[in-house]
Amino acid sequence: MDFAGAFAWDNVVFILKGLLVTLEVALISIVLSFVIGCILAIVQYAKIPVLSHIVATWVEIIRNLPLLLLIMFTYIALPDIGIKLDPFVSTVVALTVFESAMLAEIVRGGLRSIEKGQIEAARSSGLTYVQTLWHIVLPQALRSMVPPTVSQFISLLKDTSLATAIALPELVHNMSIVKSQNVNYTLPAFLLATMLYLIVNFALSIVSRRLELRRA
C-alpha cells in the first residue's frame, strides 16, 4: 500500500472533482425527481380518469427496472432514434426517471395518510379540491414523509456510481483511474472514496434527523 503516492495532491484533486460531479448529478436529479414524483403522486391520488391508470402503470414499470439498464438505455439506445446525450445528461435523465417513480410511491403514501375528515372539513369551509390539496393535504404529507424521502435521496447519491458504466467522471470512475496507476494505490483510493461517501451521506442523515425533530 502506498498512501503517500495515492494521496498525492493531483490524485486527491482528481477524486474530489469526481465527487463534485457526483454531487452535481445528485442535486439536479433530486430536484427534478422530487417535482416529477409529486406530480405523479398527485395524479394517482386524485384518481383522474384514464390518466391515473397510465401514471400508475408507468410508475410500476419503472420501479421494477434496474437503474443501470435505464442509464445504459439513455446513453446507448436513445441515439438509435436520434437522441444523443452526453454521459452527464444521460445519468441525470435516467436517475430522474427512476427516482421520480420511487418518490411517487412515497408521496402517494404520505397523501393517503391524511385523514379524510380534514379534507371534508376543508371542502365544507369553501375550499376547492385543488386548494384543499395544496394548503391542507400536501403540506402535512410532505412533513410525514421526510425520513423515507431523505433515505431515497441518499440512495440516489450512491446510485450515481452506476454511471461509471458510461464513463461519467464521477467519484467511483475517478477513483478507479487513480487506483489503476499503481496496484499499491488500490486500497488507499478505495478508502478515500468510501470516506467521502460516508461524509456526504452522514450529513444528509443529520439533516433528516433534525427535520424529523422539528416536525415532532
TrEMBL record:
It is a multi-pass membrane protein. Belongs to the binding-protein-dependent transport system permease family. It comes from the Bacteria. Pfam families: BPD_transp_1 (PF00528). This is Glutamine ABC transporter permease. The chain crosses the membrane at residues 20-43, 55-78, 185-207. It comes from Gordoniibacillus kamchatkensis. Keywords: Cell membrane, Membrane, Transmembrane, Transmembrane helix, Transport. NCBIfam families: HEQRo_perm_3TM (TIGR01726). Residues 19-208 form the ABC transmembrane type-1 domain. It is found in: Cell membrane. CDD domains: TM_PBP2 (cd06261). Gene3D superfamilies: MetI-like.
